[in-house]
Structure formats: structure tokens, C-alpha cells
Amino acid sequence: MRFFLRKLFPALVLSGLATALYARYIEPRLLRLTHVNIQLPRRHAHLNGLTVAFVTDTHVCPTYSATNLEPVAEVLERTQPDLVLFGGDYVSESPRFIAQAMPPLARMAKTGKLGAFAVLGNHDLAVGRERMVEPMEAAGIRVLTNEAASVPFGGGECWITGIDEVLLGKPDPARAFSDVPADAATILLWHEPDLAEQAAPFAPIVQLSGHTHGGQVRLPGIGPLALPKMGKRFPAGRFDIDDMVLLVSRGIGNYRPPVRLNCPPEVMIIHFVA
In sequence order, what are the residues at sequence separation of 6 or more whose Cβ sits closer than 8 angstroms to the Cβ of residue 28? Predict the structure, then answer.
């Protein structure tokens, strides 16, 4: 038995080291393109064929460089979506990363034929709301804070609504939807997913959220080891909240610890079909 343990222990150490290196340096760069079809209600059939790219949680910071976002921009340049929507948490820890993050975000935004829209996340507010909004809008990304904007499509309109983030912001769903016509076709951006029931009565077709990173580390049979506040109920994927679809992206970057395991980064490409 002692001989067996002496042989097993080095193998376990090597396996653990290999897993740690993979989680730190390899999987965080294995970008996935996740295609999702959203079935439109008949009254919103004019959005048939609309394609939306959803990018969230880029987290440019000391452990995740802006150069890691170049593959995301390349994917969007090949995809050429109608809209590019951003879900928050573009930088972390310091405002000095804002300038680094803007060029790849601007490159992504340019691929949206109908424009690019965003909400801020809790990490963005931590470095300063105004510090984020001005350079993002200069990069061609309109930031929505408890407000909505419309874009023409299919002979009608598509409304993009953005609710302020929960942890450090002042979310106001009623205000966000106040300018949206009754029964309009609406896509909602809200950084955190866990208050989705508060948005569902306003009847958006879909709510797009990030914040969770999918847990970053997911173990078979267990799932995510840790999830952030306001991201515990809906870790990743698709959920039905009354008549609203909630899509929660695993996001692009990572944050403390800077690892991913069984939870690769993703860009969601959402196809609206009648």
C-alpha cells in the first residue's frame, strides 16, 4: 500500500499542476461562438433575420490584456451582425485600463450594421461611471442607463433597453422602459441576471446578462464552484422567465482568480426567427 501511494502521489501532483496551468493559460483563450435561436412572437415577426452579437465581461485588468480581445473582434468581423450589444464589466481594478480596452471594443462596435449599445457593470462603476461612458461613446458605443433607443429593422423598430447595474448603480426598470411604446419589440440589457423577474412584466423578447462568468470553474456533477452576488440563480445559458427569454453569457475575461476550467469564454450570436 505504501509503495502504491508513493507512485500515486507524484502522478496526482503532476495532474494537478497540468490542470492549473491549463486553467490559467489555455482555456481562458479558447473562445467559443455560441449560436442561439430566439423564436419571435407573431407580433414581432418583422425582426425575422435580425442577428445580434452579445459581448460581455471583457475585464481588461493586470491579468487579462486588451490584446486577448483581438480574437473577439476578428470573430465579429467575420460574422457581421446587425447589432453588437455589450453587457458590462469592460475593465477591472483601475481606470488606467480604460484606454487599453477601447480600441478592441471600438473594432467590435464597428461590425454592427445597425449600431452598438451597452450597459455598464459593477466593475465599470467601481472605476468611475463618467470615466467609462465618454470613451465608450467616442468608440461608437451608446451606453444606456435606465433608458432605451430604437433602431429600424424589417419595416419596423427594435428597441434596445438598458437597466443600470444592481450592486453599485441605481436600477430603475420602469424608467428604462418609459419611452418604449406598448407592445414594442424590445431587447433588454442588464448586467446582472438575478432580478430578471422584475424585467419580465415589461415584456422584452429577451434579456441579455453577464456578470457570472459561468462560475469560471465548473466541476462535473457539481457545477460552478463560486458565483458572484446577483449572479447565483442563473449561472449561464438560457432560462425562461414567464414569456421572456433570459440569456446569461459566460463572458470573455476572468477575474480573481484569473482561471477558467470547463467554462470557456464565449460570444453569443443570437438569431431572431419568426
Answer: 64, 68, 253, 254, 258, 259, 260, 264, 265
